[in-house]
Each structure stands twice: as structure tokens, then as C-alpha cells.
Amino acid sequence: MKSLAYLVAFILACIAIGGPLALGITFIKVRRFKGAITKAIIAVFLGTISVLLGLVLILNSGGIGSKALGFLGVATGAPAILRSIRSVRDFR
């Protein structure tokens, strides 16, 4: 049962920290194209995890707190993905 609690804590941390962190990474200014690609890969990876796990929480849970946490993950992960893709596309 202890390992299940660790798994739940890890999933909730991925949602609560991953989305805002991905969105925060998109605001970092870089000068080189290689840095923009690296930044975009990290932000898209964290944002995708946050969006997918957030959707799982929204669709499969009954409590209002877990749904709110799921919406937080989706609301911060989706703009992070879009900003990352646009930053690489409009770099030059």
C-alpha cells in the first residue's frame, strides 16, 4: 500500500509541477537555435505529460479537488506546448 501512495504522489506531482514548469520554461529567452530546440523539447515533454495525466484525472475521478488539479494541468500544459512550437517556428 505504501508503493501505491508513492505512485499517486508522483502522478499528482507530475500534474501540479509539470504543467506550470513547462509554461515557465517557455518564457526563457534563448539566442541560439539549438537552445530553442532543447527548450521546446523539454517544455513539450513536460506539457504533454501534464495534459495527459490531467485529462485522466478529469475524466476518471469524482472529487472536485482532483478535477481542479486536472484542469490546472491541462490549462498550463496546453499553452506550454503551443508556445514551444511557435517559438521554434518563429525563431528566425
Could you give the order of the helices and strands?
HHH
Low-pLDDT regions: none
Overall structural class, as computed from helix and strand content, comes to mainly alpha
Give me the number of helical elements: 3
Description:
With 92 residues, the chain is mostly helical. The chain has one domain. The protein has 3 helices and no strands. Helix 2 runs antiparallel to helix 3. The mean pLDDT is 93.
Question: Strands, helices and their partners?
Answer:
Blueprint: H1 2-25, H2 33-60, H3 64-89
Features:
mainly alpha; 85% helix; 3 helices; 92 residues; 0% strand; single chain; elongated
Give a nutshell description of this structure:
The chain is mainly alpha-helical and 92 residues long. The chain has three helices and no strands.
